[in-house]
Structures are given as C-alpha cells and as structure tokens.
Amino acid sequence: MVECTEFLLGIPSIECEGNNRSSPTTVHRIQKHANQPETATYSAVESAVVDNGGTITQEIHGVLNGVAADLSAEAMEALMEQDGIAYIEEDTPVYISMPQNNPTWGQDRIDQHDSRNGYYIWKGNKTAGRGIDVAYLKTGFDPQNKHMNLVGGYYVLSTDRNAWNDCNGHGTHVATVGSIEYGVAPGADIWAVRVLDCSGGGTASGVVAGINWVVEQAKKMGGKWVINMSLGGGFNQTLNDTVKKARDAGIIVVVAAGNNGNTADPSACSCSHQVPRLL
C-alpha cells in the first residue's frame, strides 16, 4: 500500500488506493533565487524528480512552468525540501461537462432582456465575432466541418501536436454552438486545443499545458482571445494559477457551470471566484 501523507504549504492530502501504484502528482516550479537562471532551476527540479524515483509524464512550459510526474509518498516528502518547488498536488482528473439536451434556444436567452421572444441579434450577421480568436479546450474538432473558421489546433496528449481530430464529438458540438455560421459568433477564428482523450477524460496538467499554448499563441499573434472550457473536476491550485495567468495576459476565460442542476460554482471546473474574467 502507498503510504499517504498530508503535506503542508497548502498541499492537499493524497487518498490511498490500497495498491502499489503511485499517485500522479503535479510538481509546480517557481524560482526562489533571483540570481539563479530559470532554466537551471527547472532542470534541477526535473533531475530531483528522477533522482527520487519519479517518472515525469509531462513537461509544462509557458506562463506557468512545472512537470507532471508519478511519485511515491516518500518522493513527495523529499521533493518538498528541493529549492525551486512551490507546491506539490495531485494531478486531478477532468472530464467533459455535458451540455443540455436542447441548447439552441439558449442563444435567445443571452441577447436581450426579453428572453425567448424568437429574435436573435446574430440572425443574418455573419461577421459577429470577427477579429476574435476562440480556443476550445476540449476533445478536439472534426476538420470535416466546413461551417466555421477553423484556423488550426494543438494536441497536448501526443507527440503529434497536430493530432487534434475529435474522436469523441463533444468538442465539435460545443464549438458549433458558439462559432458555426449559424451560431453566436460565426465570424470568430476557431482553435481546437485537444486536452481530453476519446472517452472525454484528461488531467489538470493537460489542461494547464493547453492554456499555456493558447497564451503563447496570443502573444505571438496579438488580437483578442477567448478560452472556452466545458470541463468538470475538482479544484486544482496549479490549474487555477494558470487561469489567473491567462487572465493577466488579457484573455477572457469562459467555463461551463451549473450543468449538474444544483450549482453554478466555477470551482467545479477547478477555478476560483478570484478570477474576475471568468464567466
């Protein structure tokens, strides 16, 4: 059995599963010494993970740097003494947030005070959303769909970063609601950032990598950017910090909330109320 320890520094306890499998853990690195090069600090953390018997499963670079790794409880305890590590937490699972069965009337609810009167401000306006880049962090997108301005994509779960084709359908569904030629913003440019597998499951570290990629794209290209995430899962500090970084970079972050019928709390998608541009 894996010995589980509750750590300090705001680190949640890791639940014991009763087997010998190590808990996947996100190691978030921050530089503590101003005179130490960032690359040197990052390399030292990676080396420390390996030296303590850990296996790095994903490297995360960008607005927030860190690694996802499989670690034992003993390794986590040792790594907390390592310079350059801010905290260690479980790499929590995320999953698709299922939409309502008949969402089309929702467009009428958001365009005016007199909701559901059959009038849509987007009706016939194919330029709505023009000049805005929208990145959908989901299961990818079906490139055969020719009814929207699909610019490109990115896949965080594979060495083939272009393998962002949707093998689940959820990403394509949500993107078409917002950005198809008959949607809310048909003029927007669409990016398919695949952070979930074909079953609709993933991890917080994968979403962090996806957000990092979007922020870097926004820096390179400029303009107005929106991140859309229809994801469910518990609160994750690393993911929350990354969302804050995206906000600080001027990106609007939109998440699903209330799909379970009893709450509209954005913490269900790992984000806190401290993010003012979270819708």
UniProtKB/TrEMBL annotation:
Question: Taking every annotated instance into account, which residue ranges of this chain make up the domain Peptidase S8/S53?
Answer: 129-265
GO BP field: proteolysis
Q: Do you know which PROSITE patterns this protein is assigned to?
A: SUBTILASE (PS51892)
Highest taxon in the source lineage? Eukaryota
Q: Name one Pfam family in it.
A: Inhibitor_I9
In Gene Ontology terms, what is one molecular function of this protein?
serine-type endopeptidase activity
Q: Which InterPro entries match?
A: Peptidase_S8/S53_dom, Peptidase_S8_subtilisin-like, S8pro/Inhibitor_I9
Q: Please provide the record's keywords in A-Z order.
A: Hydrolase, Protease, Serine protease
Any one of the GO CC terms: extracellular space
Q: Which residues form the Inhibitor I9 domain?
A: 39-96
* UniProt family annotation: Belongs to the peptidase S8 family.
Instruction: Report what the protein is called.
Output: Peptidase S8/S53 domain containing protein
